[in-house]
Amino acid sequence: MSPGGRAPGIDLDGRFEIGGAALFDGLRLRLEPGRWTCLLGPSGVGKSTVLRLIAGLVTGGRFDGRIRADDGAALKGRIAYMAQSDLLPPWLNVERSVLLGARLRGERPNRERARRLIERVGLASHRHKRPSALSGGMRQRAALARCLMEDRLVALLDEPFSALDAATRAEMQELAFETLTERTVLLVTHDPVEAVRLGHRVYLLLPEGLEEARLPENVPLRAVYADATLHAQAELLRRLRAVRLQRRA
Fold first, then answer.
1. CB-count burial class (<10 Å; 0-12, 13-18, 19+) for 172
2. Which overall architecture, per CATH, does domain 1-78+152-249 show?
3. Sign of CA dihedral 194, 116, 76, 221
4. Cβ distance 219 to 200 under 8 Å?
């Protein structure tokens, strides 16, 4: 069971503008409770903005609308967030970075859990190193461990596996999916393979609104090489390419 009870569903409904121009208007996005929702789309349509709005972070624009959890409780304090960049403090080693949230809240850090996660992301022999001594992929794995360490009911992930090689990416997807069981997850990604593998629902965010992708009937985590998975990935990639060509025209 998720910590602190059942993970909530989340609804976002509204308009966002920046610099006097609407990035999206009348957008309605539903995150199903305890499920993975994946959001894809061309650059600049507002995918990361949607994620940051739900997280309650600064966006640089104006949002008119509502964001609410379906259990009526505030989202503050129930969200773990992983940005596109690793945001590892340069003065902290891997283990201290993973434990940072607990320290900032004045809580007793669970070092055993932190070390298990660090081992799971393949950084056990690097846990005393600072970010400057790590590769980009290693830093991203450390940031993933820090996000999973928070153990929140809601996880917002902004391209969390983008700096990883294909084999490591698959392993980290499996770790995240296992660790975030029964959590409400929003994953922003550019990778249709990733979206089809992980998503209970997959949406394309387009200038005209949301478009839901058709997925295989079996539930995630889907086998990468299964025929139904490969077919859905190909269809989603074709749609993304068509959108890109339309934007160029």
1. buried
2. 3-Layer(aba) Sandwich (3.40)
3. positive
4. yes
The one-letter amino acid at 133: A
pLDDT in tens, 153-169: 999 999 999 999 999 99
Indicate the residue type of 89.
P
Pairing of strands 154-158, 36-40: unpaired
Angle at CA of residue 35, ends 225 and 46, nearest 5°: 90
* Residue 124 structure tokens: 């056990």
pLDDT tens digit sequence for 78-125? 999 999 899 999 999 999 999 999 999 999 999 999 999 999 999 999
* 33-76 pLDDT, tens digit each: 999 999 999 888 999 999 999 999 999 999 999 999 999 999 99
Find tokens 């928070």 and name the residue.
150
Which secondary-structure segment (H or E) carries 247? helix 227-248
Q: How far is CA 127 from CA 17, 96, 176, 217, in A?
A: 42, 8, 19, 40
Q: Domain boundaries in the chain?
A: 1-78+152-249, 87-151
Mark out the alpha helices in 121-226 (DSSP H runs). 136-150, 166-179, 192-198
Give the CA distances from residue 186 to residues 2, 5, 224, in Å, rounded to whole numbers and listed in that order: 16, 19, 20
